[in-house]
Amino acid sequence: MLSTRSPVLAKTAYRAIGGAKSAAFHLPAGRISLVLCQCSSSSSNIQTRSFSFTSRAPLQSSQSLQVSPTKPRRRETKQSWPHPVYTEKQMMDIEIAHREAKSFSDKVAINAVRLLRSTFDFATGYKHDPKVASGEKRAGDATQFAMTEKKWMIRFIFLESIAGVPGFVAGVLRHLKSIRTLKRDNGWIETLLEEGYNERMHLLTFLKMHQPGLFMRLMIIGAQGVFYNAFFLSYLLSPRTCHRFVGYLEEEAVITYTRAIADIDAGKLPGFENMAAPNIAIQYWKMNPDAKIRDLLLYIRADEAKHREVNHTLANLDADMDPNPFMTEYEDPTKPHPSKGIDHIKSTGWSRDEALSK
């Protein structure tokens, strides 16, 4: 029931609610009252959005994941970067790995990641037993920390909202340098932009399952503003350090998703066990129609492992002279080389000699 003395406001309110089936106007004592009756065939079409500071929005049920509101101006578009096909074995073979920091640049990068990681953990309320992901302890035996389905979603959304920044910042800066210096880029731009696009697809997928509250939205805006400008200035100073930084950041992402998968396998997240993956994920990753959340996390973890490999490799190259090995066609296709897929993934990155070999 919306009540107002202004017929203009009443008309505007009516237009703003596009799903109204009927409206009745009454004019008692100069007051215009607008009664709107919303008819719905199924309550599952209603998506709950929370604007609370504690992010009380519930997880979407498996039945409502595939439901999206009708928008007349929305159009289906083709993917600019079709995702490579991963096999189940390739995804299961993904492991936690760490590249030892050797140079001063590496040490700057890893310390920056450690600072960022601790900040993210505090902001998202993330706690987990570190021995679970390393395999020293089973997830079912871990009792020190408890991550619920909702806490994992908050963690995923916040992580992916930041992870989509570096690829596009680096890609834009290299694009501007290319047109400024009137020189080719040697294929780096495409891979960097595709990385940012892939991270955004991760975020859009998780948003189909959970809508963060106002406080988290404000945190994302602030974090993006700070991180974008910091990474922008840092990339101008040292692209090598920035790529190493992203490589270490992706190492942490692989750990995060490995822990989440371990929690599902241990039965600690019953809400995820039978929840179907959203349609957006099935179409993007070319998943089976009956794919579950665990399958989705396997794909995303494989993506993060690929970004880990790409950025550690790019950090080993000369950013001004060397071609992008992930866009290169090699003379001997049977020999392991860097590629867009995860057929011959190298967790700590390819050395310069390996990447530039024929």
UniProtKB/TrEMBL annotation:
Family (UniProt): Belongs to the alternative oxidase family.
Cofactor info, note text: Binds 2 iron ions per subunit.
Role according to the record: Catalyzes cyanide-resistant oxygen consumption. May increase respiration when the cytochrome respiratory pathway is restricted, or in response to low temperatures.
Protein name: Alternative oxidase
Biased composition (Basic and acidic residues): 332-358
InterPro entries found in the cross-reference section: AOX (IPR002680), AOX_sf (IPR038659)
Keyword Transit peptide: yes
Residue ranges, annotated region (Disordered): 62-82, 324-358
Positions contributing to Fe cation 1 binding: E160, E199, H202, E304
Membrane topology field: Multi-pass membrane protein
Keyword Manganese in record: no
Keyword terms, alphabetized: Electron transport, Iron, Membrane, Metal-binding, Mitochondrion, Mitochondrion inner membrane, Oxidoreductase, Respiratory chain, Transit peptide, Transmembrane, Transmembrane helix, Transport
Subcellular location, principal: mitochondrion
GO MF term (any one): alternative oxidase activity
Organism: Drechslerella dactyloides (Nematode-trapping fungus)
Enzyme nomenclature, EC number: 1.-.-.-
Protein localization: Mitochondrion inner membrane
